[in-house]
């Protein structure tokens, strides 16, 4: 697989219109301290949702092919390693070999004027 583009908190990921086929895209989120986390953003109508690319069952990437994170009918997020599926809007597990309280780690994004942007990082 190719290395996803690097983005930083507060930056634009892409335009909503860029997410049509496939309706998802991976990015490498890089923080000021050098930490990197692979994330993916996906489109659901006029909304966008982003998650850390990490199956909560065994901490493996969800995808086996660049930018492909959904089931064939594009109705759920899919972990290809375990066949688990997750809700697009909440990241909660819908089916698979995991407890019902398992969920993907959500990454906050906004859609403004058709542009998907990462929320700035707020350290407490």
Topology:
Blueprint: E1 6-7, E2 12-15, E3 24-30, E4 36-44, E5 47-52, E6 77-78, E7 85-86, E8 93-95, E9 106-107, E10 109-112, E11 115-118
Parallel strand pairs: 1-3
Antiparallel strand pairs: 2-11, 3-4, 4-5, 5-9, 6-7, 7-8, 10-11
Give the gist of this structure.
It is built from no helices and 11 strands. It has strands at residues 6-7, 12-15, 24-30, 36-44, 47-52, 77-78, 85-86, 93-95, 106-107, 109-112, 115-118.
Structural Rg: 14 Å
First-to-last CA distance = 35 Å
Major sheet: arrangement of strands: 1-3-4-5-9
The percentage helix is under 10%
Order of helices and strands: EEEEEEEEEEE
Task: Describe it.
The chain has 124 residues and is mostly beta strands. 0% of the residues lie in helices and 36% in strands. The chain has strands at 6-7, 12-15, 24-30, 36-44, 47-52, 77-78, 85-86, 93-95, 106-107, 109-112, 115-118.
Salient structural properties:
single chain, 124 residues, mainly beta, five-stranded mixed β-sheet, three-stranded antiparallel β-sheet, 11 strands, 36% strand, globular
């Amino acid at each position: 697989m190719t290395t996803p583009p690097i983005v930083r908190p507060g930056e634009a990921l892409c335009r909503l219109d860029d997410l049509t086929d496939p309706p998802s895209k991976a990015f490498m989120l890089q923080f000021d301290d050098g930490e990197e986390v692979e994330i993916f953003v996906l489109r659901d109508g006029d909304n966008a949702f982003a998650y850390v690319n990490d199956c909560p069952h065994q901490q493996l990437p969800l995808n086996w092919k660049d930018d492909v994170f959904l089931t064939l009918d594009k109705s759920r997020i899919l972990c290809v390693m375990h066949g688990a599926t997750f809700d697009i809007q909440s990241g909660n597990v819908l089916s698979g070999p995991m407890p019902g309280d398992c969920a993907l780690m959500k990454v906050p994004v906004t859609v403004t004027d058709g542009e998907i942007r990462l929320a700035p990082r707020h350290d407490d």
